[in-house]
């Protein structure tokens, strides 16, 4: 009997696995002010974008010149903000329906490796997932983050290489799947040369995800377990 093909799942975080209930934007503003001294009442569009881009565009919105060390300082301040407000994030936010069940179900399959592909900086990604106790099913050391590259499609190869280095398996188009909620996740999969399962659990509609090029679109993660066989037969 043939052994199952080893596969790599790359999870998006925000609006795919969790919602912060508004804590995320507040933490961003607080960290931005700590680093730049500028109080802000708005920030650049965040949907599907890496934190480097969001931070740089917010600097531009306020005419702030970056001396070169603002973003690393911001990353530290942002993670500290999430850590300090973990209880509040749990009260106001949530793990999205089906997220915990899907992660746990995939974790039971020895041929499946799960990590993240996210625009979040790594420290903040860890704090968000830990707040909702979702980190236990993910190998976050092999994930690809907004601190690795500002261009989301470039994160695919980074995660694949880290997974290869850790586990000794080569993950390619048919053995790598992104699960995310935005057209940027779809674009990352298409340009990164991997599969995509899109989930309309965020601000992007089912039709918009299909129009972006996704072949599989689910209303939310509660529908994912019924279609887990697609990860073995092709998405």
TrEMBL record:
PANTHER family: PHOSPHOGLYCOLATE PHOSPHATASE (PTHR43434). It holds the Pfam family HAD_2. It comes from the Bacteria. This is Haloacid dehalogenase-like hydrolase.
């Amino acid at each position: 009997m043939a052994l199952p093909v080893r596969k790599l799942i790359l999870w998006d975080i925000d609006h795919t696995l969790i919602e912060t209930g508004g804590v995320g934007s507040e933490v961003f503003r607080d960290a931005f002010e700590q680093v730049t001294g500028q109080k802000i009442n708005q920030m650049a569009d965040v949907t599907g974008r890496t934190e480097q881009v969001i931070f740089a565009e917010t600097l531009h919105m306020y005419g702030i010149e970056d001396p070169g060390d603002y973003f690393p300082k911001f990353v530290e301040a942002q993670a500290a903000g999430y850590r300090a407000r973990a209880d509040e994030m749990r009260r106001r936010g949530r793990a999205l329906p089906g997220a915990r069940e899907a992660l746990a179900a995939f974790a039971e399959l020895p041929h499946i490796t799960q990590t993240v592909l996210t625009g979040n900086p790594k420290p903040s990604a860890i704090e968000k997932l830990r707040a909702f106790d979702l980190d236990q099913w993910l190998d976050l050391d092999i994930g690809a983050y907004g601190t690795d590259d500002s261009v989301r499609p470039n994160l695919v190869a980074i995660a694949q290489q880290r997974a290869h280095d850790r586990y000794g398996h080569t993950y390619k188009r048919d053995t790598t799947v992104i699960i995310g909620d935005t057209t940027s996740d779809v674009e990352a999969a298409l340009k990164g040369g991997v599969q995509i399962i899109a989930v309309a659990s965020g601000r992007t509609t089912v039709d918009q995800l299909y129009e972006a090029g996704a072949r599989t679109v689910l209303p939310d993660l509660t529908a994912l377990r019924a279609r887990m066989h697609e990860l073995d037969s092709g998405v």
